[in-house]
UniProtKB/TrEMBL annotation:
<feature type="domain" description="Glutamine amidotransferase">
    <location>
        <begin position="49"/>
        <end position="194"/>
    </location>
</feature>
<keyword id="KW-0315">Glutamine amidotransferase</keyword>
<protein>
    <submittedName>
        <fullName>Glutamine amidotransferase</fullName>
        <ecNumber>6.3.5.2</ecNumber>
    </submittedName>
</protein>
<dbReference type="InterPro" id="IPR044992">
    <property type="entry name" value="ChyE-like"/>
</dbReference>
<keyword id="KW-0436">Ligase</keyword>
<dbReference type="GO" id="GO:0016740">
    <property type="term" value="F:transferase activity"/>
</dbReference>
<dbReference type="InterPro" id="IPR017926">
    <property type="entry name" value="GATASE"/>
</dbReference>
<dbReference type="GO" id="GO:0003922">
    <property type="term" value="F:GMP synthase (glutamine-hydrolyzing) activity"/>
</dbReference>
<keyword id="KW-0808">Transferase</keyword>
<dbReference type="InterPro" id="IPR029062">
    <property type="entry name" value="Class_I_gatase-like"/>
</dbReference>
<dbReference type="Pfam" id="PF00117">
    <property type="entry name" value="GATase"/>
</dbReference>
<dbReference type="GO" id="GO:0005829">
    <property type="term" value="C:cytosol"/>
</dbReference>
């Protein structure tokens, strides 16, 4: 099998490693089957995308909608490299699944308007599949129910998609929770790479990044611990299964 690539853009080594472990666990892939590309510091490690099965891009403290002059150099470097890779992904029809930061980068690359209109604080939200979502091959492979709980925490979101994009899932606060462009390029606003314990751990690392009020953190965690969000991670296993080659 050709390997998959996990793109990471988290500058913090401990958080990046935890994310890596989660993607390995939820995809079921072995270390040798998942190349780790930390684009906040290094170039994309694969020259010919025909040598891989697909790409998974996880969340990030970076946001595409902030002014360019406000972005640190690591963010500018990662964003430029992601857009370069996405150029090839689209032309070569390489399977791609982007989560959270992935919806901002894939959306921006494809001409979507990404802004802060539909940001959501850290928490669990109800996600509902659209008619197109119910028929989508990846969603069907994952066996997602029509309505499920997704874990979110984002400052920016899709405001408007280009006409050729297909909305696969929506939510009450963020109208675009999942979309597809092309035949197999996907992005989700919710986090398929996180379960309840891991989003709480992630939130502790980013408590001062503006995703929630630090004074409310423990109350938010208590509310999250009452939730069950076991559907979204099935997308990662389905992606690895459906597109392995």
């Amino acid at each position: 099998m050709k390997p998959f690539v996990q793109i990471a853009t988290r500058p913090e080594d401990d958080v990046a490693l935890t994310e890596r472990e989660a993607v390995l666990a939820f995809t079921g892939l072995g270390e040798d089957d998942l190349i780790w590309a930390r684009l906040d510091r290094d170039p994309f490690p694969v020259e010919d995308l025909e040598d891989i099965s697909g790409i998974i891009l996880c969340g990030s403290p970076f946001t595409v909608s902030e002014p360019e002059e406000s972005k640190p150099e690591a963010e500018k470097r990662a964003e430029k490299e992601i857009f370069r890779v996405l150029d090839q992904v689209i032309v070569q029809d390489i399977p791609f699944l982007g989560a959270c930061y992935g919806i901002g980068t894939l959306g921006t690359h494809q001409g979507a308007l990404i802004d802060r209109t539909y940001g959501e604080p850290l928490g669990a939200v109800e996600v509902t599949l659209t008619a197109a979502g119910l028929e989508d091959p990846l969603v069907k492979e994952a066996g997602l129910p029509t309505t499920f709980t997704g874990l979110v925490g984002h400052k920016e979101a899709v405001h408007t998609l280009p006409s050729f994009a297909t909305v696969l899932a929506s939510g009450a606060t963020a109208p675009v929770q999942m979309f597809r462009v092309g035949t197999r390029q996907y992005a989700t606003q919710f986090h398929p790479e996180l379960d309840i314990p891991s989003i709480i751990e992630r939130a502790r690392a980013y408590r001062d990044h503006g995703y929630f009020s630090p004074d409310e953190m423990e109350d938010i965690f208590t509310a999250l611990q009452r939730e069950t969000a076991d559907a979204p991670p099935k997308l990662l296993r389905a992606f690895a299964t459906l597109f392995a080659r």
